[in-house]
Specification:
The structure holds 3 protein chains of 3 kinds. Chain A is mainly α. Chain A is built from 13 helices and 2 strands, in the order ααβαααβαααααααα. Chain A is about 65% helix and about 0% strand. Chain A has a two-stranded antiparallel sheet with strand order 1-2. The longest helix of chain A has about 35 residues. By secondary structure, chain B is of the alpha+beta class. In chain B, about 30% of the residues lie in helices and about 20% in strands. The longest helix of chain B is centred in the last third of the chain and has 18 residues. Chain C is an all-alpha fold. Chain C contains 13 helices and 2 strands; from the N terminus they run H-H-H-E-E-H-H-H-H-H-H-H-H-H-H. In chain C, a hairpin with a 7-residue loop joins strand 1 and strand 2. The longest helix of chain C is centred in the middle third of the chain and has 39 residues. Chain C is globular. Classes of the chains: A mainly alpha, B alpha+beta, C mainly alpha. Chains in contact: A-B, A-C, B-C. Chains B and C meet through helix 1, helix 4, strand 10, helix 9 and helix 16 of B and helix 2, helix 3, helix 5, helix 7 and helix 8 of C.
Chain lengths: ~325, ~575, ~350
């Protein structure tokens, strides 16, 4: 894909946006080595909820401190790192997973994906054995019948019969069902349930955020795919004999994912908003994990602390605008 | 399109021009609650709002006098006379006021007290809490000559049961049990009823009648003898209480503090957010804002307009911010390790940071103004050098990577549990973690939901915790938090030896003052040496009230104010005026 | 079409019941039940129990609470021991789930653990409070989104459009509670602009006009915060899609035929760009019904979101399960409505039955 970089004079906004994003990435990657006057998660008990100060000499809280005593500047840096290492990958993963699931569900629907009979018996047998249900003999019978069915495909006559009687895998219903389940249970209940367990590690949190965010993109893309599926060029591709998987991957998916470019920065903002909403309700990570969302959440304890809202708020605002600008410019090149 | 917006904006402005009318003499007093009482069932009082409401609707034998911070007789004429029987029983003799009467005019008699106590043990009612609290009352002996006199036989000899025995709302027998069917059962029989046996038919019928009355939602179905009745309840928004028209307590002369009910109407607004409540106070939609958080209090005081309209008071409370250790964990078994960790906390700095310097530092679980306070002990301070020395004494060695290890053991790494919604706890946890990290000890913070924290503390699944210990001005019984029998319920540090158990039991039953002083001093020294928990400081209660209100009493006992004593200027006692 | 609709509705009902069942079973498996919160704090020294609260007494009290609430029955028809040797045990119809389903079929949603009131009444009251607010917020937001989307479709031309785009991006990034708090501090603050009440009670003995005015004024701030929170989500993708649609061939043809840019936008581009808006709207349906916790807590409104949050915190399972059932049903209904609207808007689409 050829990228035509616009010159600075023609589109200064694009280069500013790109510059901000690169600065953010640099700060995030170099965070452990930056010479900050105060560390991120340490409360300064003598300067709690202090406005920004710029004294002539000595270290000071240049962006102020939050109601817990943590330095806002260090919090911004730590938040940038968390954004780069957690929120951004989660948003990208959620968008990707949602695009795959949604387009697949929209393309194949409930009737068009066919699975051989052996798959059903095999899955049932494995499940019966794994759950140790009473009557373990049945599990062995099912597994044996799976092997028999797989062997039968060697001969043409049984193979043809098996192909005619293959099972329609209801992919659309499955994807929609899982997305609905995740979306219909109020986030609150899900999070209260999760709060009962041990605090999640980095990868668990990444998986969790992806799990919460993918239904949104999936539904959006599925709707778009329903429109794209009936376009004439898809019919032409089918007529020319291309396998369905290839049509889906090379032709349908890129068109159906069009609204995602505008949506992806929104889902990132949504994930950050989710963090601050978590902190509002009282769930979420501990105070030693500083992120922009959790800094914003502390404003509730001291509404007069405008600097705690201004710092992360401006950073979020610039990041979102920058992402949107870069996405729009990328979109224009298509 | 734009005229539509302009027009609607003008309409909004016209309707919402706020003027603050001067309060009339009979205007309602408006107070703030942080949460809805959920249920007004006098047997089940799940939160402080329900307790406050209950104190308006019902009266108990003894109620808290917020001016003197003691229990004062309300339905009873005087504090009960205690008589020790044997080595485990106490007989408390009560006499009810002659003037006390129900709304129907019938006097409040000892049979009503007996009925209420029996109701607490009827299965199927939400009375488990009352049952646990008042299960120590075994028998009620009613004086045959005087229906206002009775004695309670209690299964304990602690000093505080004189107060606790009278702290339940008395319910009318006539409205729930007009046929007196419960009189054929003794209190002891109902207490000892086995759980798997179905209840007697009379008891089952009574339970059914109680449930039908639906007191949780409609407390007026079983009217109490208190000064107020519930006028209106919008769930999660507002409760309205109106003074009864002919209440017997208004005629008691001289009126004791606990029977004073000056406001004609009380309106409680449920406002969960502190900042929104502060704004409501500034806009004169509230008159009393109790338990104001520190920063909001500071902001309110800083505004000159607010200084003119409102009066701000601070009172030291009996809630102690405490850090506790799990003494049964191998890393914390040695008391020198616990002492070392206690030197990593900075109580002075934490008090300055979270409470803006208000509150009282303490050496133990007793408040500094308590006569038994041991002032010869030094206040705990932040001393990392001493912490290092103590760790070395306990056998910990610092290895090359900076971590502390017992020879051949794992590195010193601890977990700290606390309630996630409390910011004070978060500051303490962060400070401890930062100080410990400087020394090379890693502390993992585990803020969780309330029930998760409680379950982990009860099962011992923690190393450290931050919690509020609610002590009391009415007695010095520390057995619920430090006795071995309470391990698994209230004794979270899992601390206790036979000699400490004996000391705690002796403290709670000792009546002789010099002996008690000696016991309590040795108790405080023991706590400092063993350090199962470290009390940081006593939290303050802050109150903001309208300057026009009279008789505003700021107290250190929950809820921090006396609602029934408030009044507007130039308003006579409102009895009889509709 | 009618048969397809009926089939979809039936599937939606089954799915809602399945989700509620999962929440039912999951909530009881999560530890720390309502019995802990029904009993007062064991460490509260200001309300000591004579004789001390020992472990045995505490456990007896908890068992009594569990028995009263019906939590000592087995959870499901069968259960499985967690550790090996793994065994399955059949319990029959005397289990909590059976009771709940039987009640559900009778229309009885159970009784709240906290105050013993029927859950249906509680939920009905809460939803009746929050639904008008969120409904009008949604309508307002949709109207504004359509208007602003049409206005922004030509792209960031002119300083007004740029400012609006910046404002929308700003509102999008701000968490809801900051928006609501900011509005409170701006419009209900005696130090700033004290023109709208954030809480408070209705004036007594007021005329109907005054009451209407009071309700309008009281709901202005919550409404505004909800609208501002949802508006960027609806407007920005719509504007982007409209901009994309304007580049299509038919738009050029329409301009060539003599239609004005506004007419092209409104009559031709808008119907094509509406479908993702519909998707987003139906995503909002559960929030509409259940209410938003943040706005309700900040403004002291007794709505559905606050009910759910407080019930979840207090482990009041019947209320939580009923609220989840309602929210799931709303979401599934929204999906069906979205599919119907898709079919109506674009006849080329077939329902994927």
């Amino acid at each position: 894909m050829k990228i035509a970089w616009p010159s600075f004079g023609a589109q200064p906004a694009f280069w500013l946006a790109l510059g901000w994003l690169l600065l953010l990435a640099a700060v995030a990657l170099l965070a452990p080595w930056l010479p900050l006057p105060y560390p991120a998660a340490t409360p300064d008990l003598l300067h709690v909820s202090e406005p920004p100060r710029w004294p002539a000499a000595g270290p000071a809280h240049y962006f102020g401190t939050d109601p817990l005593g943590r330095d806002v500047l260090a919090g911004l840096v730590a938040g940038a790192r968390r954004l780069l290492l957690l929120s951004l990958p989660a948003a990208l993963l959620a968008t990707g997973a949602g695009a795959l699931a949604g387009t697949a569900a929209g393309y194949w629907g409930n009737q068009h994906l066919r699975l051989p009979l052996a798959a059903a018996t095999g899955a049932l047998g494995v499940a019966w054995w794994a759950l140790a249900l009473p009557g373990i003999l049945l599990a062995y019978i099912l597994l044996a019948s799976t092997l028999v069915l797989m062997l039968l495909t060697r001969w043409p006559l049984p193979a043809a019969w098996l192909r005619r009687h293959s099972l329609a895998f209801p992919l659309d219903a499955l994807v929609l069902g899982v997305a609905t389940l995740l979306g219909a249970v109020p986030r609150l209940v899900l999070l209260v349930a999760l709060a009962a367990g041990p605090p999640p590690s980095h990868w668990q949190l990444l998986a969790l955020l992806t799990l919460l965010a993918w239904p949104g993109t999936a539904r959006l893309v599925r709707g778009q795919m329903l429109q794209v599926r009936v376009q004439p060029f898809i019919a032409a591709a089918q007529a020319s004999g291309l396998p369905p998987a290839r049509i889906w991957w090379r032709h349908a998916l890129p068109h159906a994912s069009r609204p995602l470019l505008a949506y992806a920065p929104l889902s990132l903002a949504g994930l950050i908003g989710l963090e601050s909403a978590l902190a509002f309700i009282g769930l979420g990570q501990g105070p030693e994990v500083v992120s922009w969302g959790s800094l914003l959440a502390t404003v509730r304890q001291d509404p007069a602390a405008w600097w705690v809202a201004a710092g992360p708020g401006l950073a979020l605002f610039c990041t979102l605008l920058a992402l949107q600008k870069v996405a729009k410019t990328g979109e224009k090149d298509r | 399109m734009r005229y539509f917006w302009l027009g609607s904006l003008l309409v909004l402005l016209a309707c919402a021009c706020s003027t603050t009318p001067a309060p009339q003499a009979f205007a309602p007093v408006r107070l703030r609650w942080a949460r809805d009482p959920e249920t007004l069932d006098p047997l089940a009082l799940p939160n402080q709002s329900a307790v406050d409401a209950n104190n308006l609707l019902h009266l108990a034998l003894l109620q808290i006098d917020y001016q003197r911070n003691t229990y004062a007789p309300a339905l009873a004429q005087a504090l009960p006379r205690a008589q020790l029987i044997g080595d485990s029983l106490t007989l408390l003799a009560y006499e009810l006021r002659e003037a006390a009467a129900w709304d129907s005019g019938q006097p409040v008699l000892a049979t009503d007290v007996d009925f209420t106590l029996k109701l607490m043990h009827c299965p199927g009612l939400p009375n488990e809490n009352s049952r646990a609290q008042f299960g120590f009352i075994r028998e009620v002996h009613i004086d045959p000559a005087n229906p206002h006199r009775f004695s309670l036989l209690c299964r304990s000899q602690g000093q505080e049961i004189v107060n606790t025995s009278g702290d339940f709302s008395v319910l009318p027998e006539a409205s729930l049990d007009p046929e007196h069917t419960l009189r054929s059962f003794s209190l002891a029989a109902l207490q000892d009823w086995p759980a798997n046996r179905p209840p007697a038919p009379a008891v089952a019928a009574l339970v059914h009648r109680y449930r039908q009355a639906n007191v949780a939602r409609h407390p007026n179905n079983i009217p109490g003898c208190g000064p107020y009745r519930l006028a209106d309840w919008e769930t999660n928004r507002q409760l309205r209480f109106r003074h009864k028209i002919n209440w017997w307590g208004d005629n008691v002369q001289p009126t004791p503090f606990v029977l004073q009910a000056r406001p004609r109407e009380l309106i409680y607004s449920v406002l969960p957010d502190d900042a929104a409540a502060a704004l409501a106070l500034r806009r004169h939609e509230l008159d009393v804002y109790p338990q104001v958080p520190a920063r909001i209090f500071q902001q309110l005081q800083a505004s000159p307009a607010a200084q003119q309209d409102f009066v701000f008071s601070t009172a030291p409370s009996y809630d102690i911010l405490t850090v506790g250790f799990n003494t049964q964990r191998p890393a914390l078994r040695d008391k020198r390790t616990r002492l070392a960790l206690s030197h990593l906390l900075d109580p002075a700095g934490l008090m300055a940071a979270t409470q803006l310097g208000q509150g009282r530092r303490t050496v133990g679980l007793l408040r500094p103004d308590n006569p038994f306070y041991n002032d010869s002990l030094p206040l705990p301070t932040y001393a990392p050098a001493q912490a290092t020395a103590l760790l070395r004494q306990a056998g910990w060695q610092r290895s090359a990577d900076g971590q502390w290890r017992q020879p051949g053991g794992p590195p010193l790494a601890l977990t700290l549990r606390y309630r996630a919604t409390e910011t004070n706890f978060a500051t303490v946890a962060l400070q401890l973690r930062a100080a410990a990290a400087q020394l090379g000890i890693s502390i993992t913070l585990l803020p969780s939901d309330n029930s998760v924290v409680t379950t982990s503390l009860e099962t011992g699944d923690f190393d450290l915790y931050v919690r509020l210990v609610k002590s009391s001005p009415f007695g010095v019984n520390f057995m619920p938090i430090l006795h071995t029998a309470a391990i698994g319920t209230g004794n979270f540090p899992r601390f206790g030896r036979p000699d400490t158990d004996r000391l705690l039991a002796a403290i709670s039953t000792e009546g002789d003052l010099p002996r008690k002083r000696r016991l309590l001093r040795s108790f405080q020294v023991l706590m400092r040496e063993e350090m199962p928990l470290l009390p940081l400081f006593f939290m303050p209660y802050r109150l903001a009230a309208s300057r026009r209100l009279q008789h505003v009493v700021a107290s250190g006992i929950k809820p921090g104010y006396a609602a029934m004593a408030l009044s507007w200027p130039a308003s006579p006692t409102p009895a009889g005026t509709p | 079409m009618g048969r397809w609709l009926l089939a979809r509705l039936g599937r939606a009902a089954v799915a809602a019941w399945l989700i509620a069942s999962l929440v039912f079973i999951g909530s009881r498996l999560v530890g720390g039940g309502p019995e802990q919160l029904a009993l007062s704090d064991a460490t509260d020294l200001s309300r000591p129990t004579g004789g001390g609260r020992t472990l045995a007494r505490q456990q007896a009290a908890e068992q009594a609470v569990r028995h009263r609430l019906g939590l000592d029955l087995p959870l499901f028809y069968f259960s499985r021991t967690a550790r090996p040797p793994v065994q399955w045990q059949w319990h029959g119809p005397a289990n909590q789930y059976h009771r709940w389903v039987a009640g559900l079929l009778r229309g009885d949603l159970g009784y709240s653990y906290r105050d013993g009131q029927p859950v249906g009444t509680l939920l009905g009251q809460a939803v009746a409070y929050s639904l008008p607010l969120t409904g009008s917020a949604a309508l307002l937001a949709v109207g504004l989104a359509l208007g602003l989307g049409l206005y922004l479709a030509p792209g960031p031309a002119g300083w007004r459009r740029r400012l609006l785009l910046g404002l929308l991006a700003g509102w999008q990034v701000t968490p809801l509670f900051l928006l609501a708090l900011g509005l409170l501090l701006l419009f209900a603050n005696p130090d700033f602009l004290n023109i709208l009440p954030g809480s408070g009670q209705a004036p007594e003995a007021a005329s109907s006009v005054e009451l209407v005015g009071y309700w309008l004024a009281r709901s202005a701030l919550p409404l505004l915060s909800l609208v501002l929170a949802v508006l960027p989500e609806l407007t920005l993708p719509l504007a982007a899609l409209l901009r994309h649609e304007l580049k299509a061939g038919y738009a050029t043809t329409a301009r060539a035929k003599g239609l004005t840019a506004a007419q092209v936008l409104r009559r031709h581009a808008l119907p094509n760009a509406l479908l993702p808006l519909v998707t987003t709207l139906t995503d909002l349906l559960p929030t509409l019904v259940a209410g938003t916790v943040v706005v309700e807590v900040l403004f002291g409104l007794p709505g559905g979101g606050r009910l759910l949050a407080e019930a979840a915190a207090a482990h009041d399972y019947p209320v939580v399960v009923a609220a989840v059932l309602l929210s799931a049903a709303a979401r599934l209904l929204g999906l069906v409505v979205a599919d119907v609207l898709y079919f109506l808007a674009d006849p080329r689409l077939r329902p994927s039955a």
